[in-house]
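Section 5: illustrative case.
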């Protein structure tokens, strides 16, 4: 989390934008509730938008039987939601979702996939300092693919879409690559 704050803080400074780190909370056990609501099904960790808080359980399926880089990617994804809030992307997304109930699921996937892309931007910017191999990257892509909505649940995007946006951010090392909002529907499936 410190590395995420340092990296994104520098990015915001270069862009002339105001940056605030999120509050980070860790819990020994996954909670039944988070941020005053029921813990969402399928969520490995959570970002509380109103409280600007990243909540990271220290147990659960997201930590078990995964590449050790997967929790790093999940943390970067939740941090991506914080960035979306700071940049008013969240506010725009919520307004669009309220106005267009027919496409709410697709809008939610665009929002989630953008956070995947932002996590890729961060990973791409620090990868050289991690002393990791191509096999490690491939294992992370496999774990990300396995976290997709291929089972019918349609909130985060199919595994192939999640991998596409993660790789896109990683390769570009720029948030400009993360425009999921104008991407064709096939890219946010």
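Designed sequence:
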């Amino acid at each position: 989390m410190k590395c995420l704050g340092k990296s994104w803080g520098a990015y915001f400074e270069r862009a002339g934008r105001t940056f605030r780190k999120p509050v980070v909370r860790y819990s020994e056990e996954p909670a039944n509730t988070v941020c005053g609501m029921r813990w969402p099904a399928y969520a490995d960790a959570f970002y509380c938008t109103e409280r600007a808080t990243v909540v990271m359980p220290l147990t659960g399926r997201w930590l078990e039987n995964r590449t050790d880089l997967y929790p790093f990617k999940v943390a970067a994804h939740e941090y991506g939601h914080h960035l979306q809030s700071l940049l008013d992307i969240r506010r725009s997304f919520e307004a669009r979702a309220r106005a267009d109930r027919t496409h709410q699921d697709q809008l939610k996937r665009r929002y989630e996939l953008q956070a995947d892309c932002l996590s890729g931007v961060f990973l791409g910017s620090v990868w050289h300092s991690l002393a990791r191999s191509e096999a490690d990257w491939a294992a992370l892509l496999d774990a990300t693919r396995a976290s997709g909505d291929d089972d019918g649940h349609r909130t985060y995007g199919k595994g192939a879409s999640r991998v596409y946006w993660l790789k896109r951010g990683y390769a570009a090392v720029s948030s400009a690559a993360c425009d999921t909002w104008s991407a064709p529907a096939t890219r946010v499936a």
